[in-house]
Prior knowledge:
Helix content is about 30%, strand content about 30%. With about 120 residues, the protein is an alpha+beta fold. A hairpin with a 6-residue loop joins strand 5 and strand 6 (about 75-85). The longest helix is centred in the middle third of the chain and has 16 residues, at about 40-55. The two termini are about 15 Å apart.
Amino acid sequence: MADCDLCGVSIPTVCPVKVFEPRFEHSYPEGIWKGLCEKCLDSAKGTFDEKSDEEGKCVPGNKFEKCDLCGTTCQLYDVEVFVPSFKNVYDEEVRHLCRRCLESCNEAYDRKDECFGEHH
């Protein structure tokens, strides 16, 4: 079993996403593999597509905090994820990802069928 690095759901297979973490830049200069479930990968892809249409526009409300996937302090984009809950089946929460992680998620989305198979 593996855990999704955004929502924490435990599933048999996650899709690997290569992200660059600044705190490990000397140990892993090419990046670190993180695992995302299919729903989080779809949400990140949707945010990437939405933000690529707004390229060059100043989007209000973006914060300069740490990215939830790589830890970089930069401009972040909101990604809606569904976190498993005991009270409800899922709680909808917002995670903040940087542009670089969104691009990595977009690349991983193209390999999604290899990870999850055709039946999903």
